[in-house]
């Protein structure tokens, strides 16, 4: 894995961990950090020894948003011609399941980055919000789209139009996060979830992610057809035979493809 300056990466027990590490700016997402996160995640995605990616920040902030100071002096031509934030599309397209462990602030781009993960596990003190309206702009890393698909129009409009922050409990109630755990257990719980995912048959977990993700992007009939084709395709894998045989034989499966 390459050398990085704004993130810390490690691999353990089939989990590739990316920790955002710009404490002086509450992990604000500048261009360098975006580049490093995407590069590290792409490397993990290609690594057969990695079955899940864990994305974390610090106790105080997962990420307090895109880097406002870096963006402040830019004009339309530069934002447009450099397709600012476009690189995140690569991250969102990865096939390895991604767990975000959110502690502290997940605001603006921080909330939007967490929403690019497949599971969000939040510490009970976590705070989510899309406060871009207070800067005279709007969400630019998918907030208006992913948030609306996750929580519906009523809550998305409330957050995007008022900039109101919400706590972890409300975030769980409205379907933005998967689970809320005590702050001091966040890392352990997130590692446990990522470890569980990483222990499954890899083609099955990748296709499960693809199938659920398709629900965000396609009409119901196409999504159902896509799911069914993936389901059929899994019958070409040894893991399908092994998983079903193990059930009948009352034993744990031994996955061939992980
Ligand atoms: C750059 C940031 C930053 C950010 C915090 N910092 N957030 N720098 N971009 N998004 C810096 C502060 O300037 C400060 O640096 C240091 O981090 C610590 O932050 P404080 O404000 O002193 O901490 P605190 O008082 O605890 O307040 C925490 C906070 C506040 C509530 C999270 O920092 C805040 O409101 N941040 C901005 C949140 C936000 O608006 N995010 C959306 C960004 S726009 P110094 O050098 O002063 O110590 C976005 C969308 C992009 O994400 C799409 C369209 C633009």
Automatic annotation (TrEMBL):
Domain of life: Bacteria
Name of the protein in its database record: Probable enoyl-CoA hydratase echA8
Family as reported in the entry's similarity comment: Belongs to the enoyl-CoA hydratase/isomerase family.
NCBIfam families: PRK05862.1
PROSITE patterns: ENOYL_COA_HYDRATASE
Biological processes annotated in GO: fatty acid beta-oxidation
EC number: 4.2.1.17
């Amino acid at each position: 894995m390459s050398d990085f300056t704004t993130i810390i990466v490690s691999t353990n027990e089939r989990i590739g961990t990316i920790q955002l590490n710009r404490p002086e700016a509450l992990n604000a997402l500048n261009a360098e950090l975006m580049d490093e996160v995407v590069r590290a995640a792409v490397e993990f995605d290609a690594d057969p020894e990695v079955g899940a990616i864990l994305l974390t920040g610090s106790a105080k902030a997962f990420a307090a948003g895109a880097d406002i100071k870096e963006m402040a002096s830019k004009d339309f031509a530069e934002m447009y011609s450099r397709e600012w934030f476009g690189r995140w599309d690569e991250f969102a397209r990865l096939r390895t399941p991604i767990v975000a462990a959110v502690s502290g602030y997940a605001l603006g781009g921080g909330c939007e980055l967490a929403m690019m993960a497949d599971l969000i596990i939040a510490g009970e003190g976590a705070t989510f919000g899309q406060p871009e309206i207070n800067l005279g702009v709007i969400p630019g890393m998918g907030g208006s789209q992913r948030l609306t698909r996750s929580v519906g129009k009523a809550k998305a409009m409330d957050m995007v139009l008022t900039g109101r922050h919400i706590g972890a409990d409300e975030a769980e109630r409205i379907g933005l996060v998967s689970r809320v755990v005590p702050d001091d257990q966040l890392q352990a719980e997130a590692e446990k979830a990522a470890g569980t995912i990483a222990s499954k048959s890899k083609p099955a977990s990748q296709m499960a992610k693809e199938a659920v993700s398709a629900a965000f992007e396609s009409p119901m009939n196409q999504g159902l057809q896509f799911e069914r084709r993936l389901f059929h395709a899994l019958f070409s894998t040894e893991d399908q035979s092994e998983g079903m045989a193990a059930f009948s034989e009352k034993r744990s499966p031994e996955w061939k493809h992980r």
